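Good day; I would like, with your permission, to put a structural problem before you. A protein sequence and the structure tokens that stand for its backbone fold form the material at issue. I would ask you to consider whether the tokens describe a fold that such a sequence might reasonably adopt. I set the record out below, with my sincere thanks for your time.
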Amino acid sequence: MALRLQKILSERGVASRRAAERLIASGRVTVNGAVAEIGMSADPERDEILIEGKPLPPETERRYIMLNKPRGYVTTMSDERGRKTTAELTADCPERVYPVGRLDMDSDGLLIMTNDGELAHKLMHPSHGIKKTYRVIAEGDVAAALPVLKAPIEIDGRETLAAEVSVNGGELTVTISEGRNRQVRRMCEAAGLRVTRLTRISEGALELGGLKTGKWRYLTPQEVKSVESAEPMVSR
């Protein structure tokens, strides 16, 4: 059956849909010997699809895992600077899985990794508005920062959606529905705070719970379903 090329690549675990589109746009994907274009459809059972000259990976069992990423690890499969990567922590997973989104090197906590590009797309794409919650320890006047953190803040020339913020014993809990680069850290900086510890504790219905630092576990079928059933937000 013919499908959009980026959908095929994501379903085979090559990359998320957005990353697959970038692969296609860069001319690194061919279909039956011709350079592919965005929007092209193909049949993986009948057409020869190559990524950088290599055959499309065969279908493999879908894997969905949650990692409690430690600080000091970069969220990538390899690093040209020789830093420790999340791929090292999940090397014992039967299939190769890829991180969904980013959690910067100085942050820790919940990170989803999978070879299912469609599910990764749902978790990352802003249209689904899947909320991410962080526990934040910061230096500065937290009481004065609260009104700033709760209001839209301009980052890279565009306002964020309003965040949900609460304080418990000097520790902040911040929930956002976007995934802008280092968003929570930059929000805190704009509010006059210096973050000393940032931990992601939940993503949608997925909760870190008691998972030990540096360890991973499979998502339950119910957890996977909670992501798959997420509906796009109504445009504001």
